[in-house]
Automatic annotation (TrEMBL):
Top-tier EC class: hydrolase
InterPro entries: Fumarylacetoacetase-like_C, Fumarylacetoacetase_C_sf, Rv2993c-like_N
Enzyme Commission code: 3.7.-.-
Source taxonomy: Bacteria, Bacillati, Actinomycetota, Actinomycetes, Kitasatosporales
UniProt organism field: Streptomyces monticola
Record's keyword terms, sorted: Hydrolase, Metal-binding
Name of this chain's protein: Fumarylacetoacetate hydrolase family protein
Lineage top rank: taxon: Bacteria
Length: 264
């Protein structure tokens, strides 16, 4: 099932996406969910066309834990070593935007980059998760773009400003809940800018697996329903300019699209 969060006529709701899969005919619709999707829920039967709503970030997370340099070719292209153990950092929830929202080019940077990533959405409170139980705490998967002020990242010792500025974490368009870990660990991931392919890789190229990342982070902290884990980006990162349209597509999930505007 694909679960989206959206607004229409000033109201915010979650809905199950129908008719957005390969071979589906007709306009996709959202069947509004009663309640919060992380627990048991019912479909209301009230349906609205996807084209009539504004898609929001599909989660209401407490935190975004991101992992850097988790694809060897990406680490190499920026002149970095591949970390022996997962290398985590945080992005604030205020950095999240949905598909169709604008990425605001930060005034303190002149080198903005895209980073297409698979995002894991947590479905239940968990801590010290053993490897064999990781599948039980995952709610689903979505697309993300770890937008980075590369010049700021290079000159500052920590990445809070470079990767945590407002609008630096596009996520969406929805959460796909029907993928298991084996499938999610071998998905094609692509980034285009103005229709031109920039990144093309597979989640199978991760140095540290989805299980590795969740075991690692839950050794240190409790994860809550809706928390997001960014799993790293394949090679091919590159510049974004004002006016560009950047799209992240992940096999079996969908496409996250955002336009870059001047912050004003």
């Amino acid at each position: 099932m694909r679960i989206a969060r959206f607004s229409i006529d000033g109201n915010v709701a979650f809905g199950a996406v129908e008719g957005a899969g390969p071979g589906d005919e007709g306009e996709p619709v959202l069947d509004i969910i009663k309640g919060i999707p992380y627990a048991d829920f019912e479909l209301s039967g009230v349906k609205v066309p996807l084209s009539k709503v504004r898609l929001l970030p599909p989660v209401l997370g407490n935190k975004i834990v991101a992992f850097g340099r988790n694809y060897a070719d990406h680490a190499k292209e920026l002149g970095n070593d591949v970390p022996e153990t997962p290398f985590a950092f945080f992005k604030p929830t205020t950095s999240m935007i949905g598909s169709g929202d604008a990425i605001e080019y930060p005034s303190f940077s002149s080198e903005l980059h895209h980073e297409a990533e698979l995002a894991v959405v947590i479905g239940r409170m968990c801590r010290e998760v053993p490897r064999e139980r990781v599948k039980d705490v995952i709610y689903g998967y979505t697309c993300a773009n770890d937008v980075t002020a590369r010049d700021v990242q290079k000159r500052e010792k920590q990445w809070a400003r470079a990767k945590g500025f407002d609008t630096s974490c596009p996520i969406g368009p929805w959460v796909e809940t029907d993928l298991d870990i084996a499938a999610a660990s071998d998905l094609a991931i692509q980034c285009t800018v103005n229709g031109e392919q920039r990144q093309l890789g597979s989640t199978s190229q991760m140095t540290h697996s989805i299980e590795d990342l969740i075991v690692n982070v839950t050794e240190a902290m409790t994860l809550l329903p809706g928390d997001v884990i960014l799993t790293g980006t394949p090679a091919g990162v590159g510049p974004l300019n004002v006016g560009d349209e950047v799209a992240v597509t992940i096999q079996g999930i969908g496409t996250l699209t955002n336009k870059v505007i001047k912050r004003g």
